[in-house]
Amino acid sequence: MRYEIRVDGIMSEAMLGSFPELEHVLMSGQTVLFGPVIDEAHLYGLLARCRSLGLRVLEMRQLPE
Predict the structure, then answer these.
(1) Following DSSP, what letter does each residue of 3-15 receive, concatenated?
(2) Is the pLDDT of residue 40 over 90?
(3) Are 5 and 51 spatial neighbours (Cβ–Cβ below 8 Å)?
(4) How buried is residue 31: exposed, middle or buried, by Cβ count under 10 Å (0-12/13-18/19+)?
């Protein structure tokens, strides 16, 4: 499975380092994280990292393979 997670704001390099398994692009005041997600536990772990960093998730969606 591949997912995209859009967060509000431009993440710093240090914050992006918290998501080594994901790629990212910065656009229109948002950071888009995307990449493979192994299972549901991994997905919840990514969301927990967002929460612990104080990131506001705007959208999360599964990408077509």
Answers:
(1) EEEEEESPPPHHH
(2) yes
(3) no
(4) buried
